[in-house]
Design goal:
The protein is α/β, with parallel strands linked by helices. The chain folds into two domains: 42-160 and 304-388, Response regulator (Rossmann fold, 3-Layer(aba) Sandwich); 162-293, Rossmann fold (3-Layer(aba) Sandwich). It contains 14 helices and 15 strands. Helix 8 (225-232) crosses helix 9 (245-257).
């Protein structure tokens, strides 16, 4: 009897011990995990953006992201946490980008930096971000160096591959004008050089004979007038314009004003905006220009009844009323914010930098509303390019209209 009385408590103790171990294990699995910049109440993000300088028209990207997370916070935040976005002006210059990003990481102590624009500016901080193991995500770049999971695993692009885009123009030229003489204007950095590389790769062994003129420019140049005059003299009947918006507009206008009438002109998706590029160039001087696109222009009549476009316009009216809704870069910024929201929601309560990176590189068929039909976000641990398809479009004097189905970049 005494033995039984001793045995029963012992068994009970064993059962209780087992239950405690199981409960402890379950709690450990459910435990919240944080790195610098995250807590039970807040997620702190950083962004460098050209609010001034030669490409300040793209500053709307940052303003739209600030407005977007203001909206998210009013709706309860992400998994119950407020998102604090700290954004500084980097003037689109690498030294300034380096300065403000170091401040974001070392003083503001953000969880991640995302959305920064520009190949040169992001290249200047890439080694630093990877050495610090701070997520450097969804960047406004399409140069190949930013899709390097092996050597720079903490850096991911948001734009399609410039090289892939360039190859698509080559394929269209070979299909529609196989005897074309091509002149190329390109920005003298990763952006322009990768586009030119893709164009030549797409043309293959015909590149040497078909490309009759090349002219580069620096972002600090006042105009590209002399380059256009040089390219006209090449005798080209196709003009490929690999420039950011301000220089692209100058080039289009100069081509027309000097009486050069190429049979076809191509414009990179980076500058394929009616408001930022074609209006300054002159809509009448831009008619017929072809480009690639991956997101909608909210002010185009074709999207007037589109639910996602209506949602975007309502968002802009309420949360960013002082921003120019006709600037399509705002739509791009909206897409970046939606992608970052997706990454943070997928991260759940595991807000470590490692997990945030994992979620950013594990996107599967994510179709945010303002992406064009047939275009979705897909990333993997071995391939960070987010978009594998683009849409060929042509400017009809009022808007860019789609030309056929979306095209695979690879």
């Amino acid at each position: 009897m005494t033995q039984q009385n001793h045995t029963l408590p012992r068994r009970t103790a064993l059962l209780l011990t087992g239950a405690a171990l199981l409960l402890g294990s379950t709690m450990a699995l459910a435990q919240k995990k944080y790195d610098t910049g995250a807590s039970d109440t807040e997620i702190k993000l950083g962004m460098a953006m050209p609010y001034s300088g030669p490409v300040s028209s793209y500053g709307i990207v940052g303003k739209v992201n600030e407005a977007y997370f203001k909206m998210i916070n009013e709706k309860g935040g992400i998994n119950g946490r407020k998102v604090t976005l700290i954004s500084y002006d980097d003037q689109y210059t690498p030294p300034r980008t380096t300065e403000v990003v170091r401040k974001l990481v070392e003083q503001d102590e953000v969880l991640a930096v995302y959305g920064n624009l520009g190949s040169a500016s992001n290249a200047a901080i890439m080694r630093y971000m990877n050495a610090k193991k701070v997520p450097h995500l969804l960047l406004g770049v399409g140069a190949d160096r930013f899709n390097d999971p092996k050597n720079n695993p903490w850096t991911t692009p948001y734009m399609p591959s410039y090289e892939g885009e360039g190859s698509l123009y080559a394929k269209n030229i070979l299909k529609t004008m196989p005897g074309a003489k091509i002149a190329v204007l390109y920005q003298n950095d990763d952006f322009g050089k990768d586009l030119l590389k893709g164009l030549k790769k797409g043309l293959g062994d015909k590149a040497a004979s078909m490309i009759v003129g090349e002219a580069s420019f620096e972002i600090a140049d006042p105009t590209v007038d002399s380059q256009i005059i040089k390219l006209q003299a090449s005798g080209a009947d196709v003009f490929v314009n690999f420039a950011t918006a301000r220089f692209a507009a100058q080039a289009i206008r100069k081509v027309y004003d000097i009486g050069w009438r190429p049979k076809q002109q191509y414009l990179t998706y980076v500058s394929a905006y009616v408001k930022m590029t074609l209006e300054p160039a002159g809509l009448d001087k831009s008619n017929g220009i072809m480009a690639m696109a991956f997101f909608k222009d909210a002010t185009q009549p074709r999207w007037a009844d589109d639910p996602a476009t209506k949602e975007f316009l309502a968002f802009m009216k309420k949360y960013a009323p002082d921003q120019d809704v006709t600037n399509a870069a705002g739509v791009y910024g909206y897409g970046v914010a939606q992608a970052m929201e997706q990454v943070l929601r997928a991260s759940g309560d595991n807000l470590t930098r490692e997990n945030v990176l994992k979620q950013a590189t594990s996107l599967k068929a994510v179709s945010t509303g303002m992406l064009l039909p047939g275009v979705a976000l897909n990333t993997s641990s071995t391939d960070y390019w987010p978009f594998s398809t683009l849409q060929l479009v042509r400017f009809n004097g009022k808007e860019f209209e789609p030309m056929g189905q979306s095209i695979a970049v690879k």
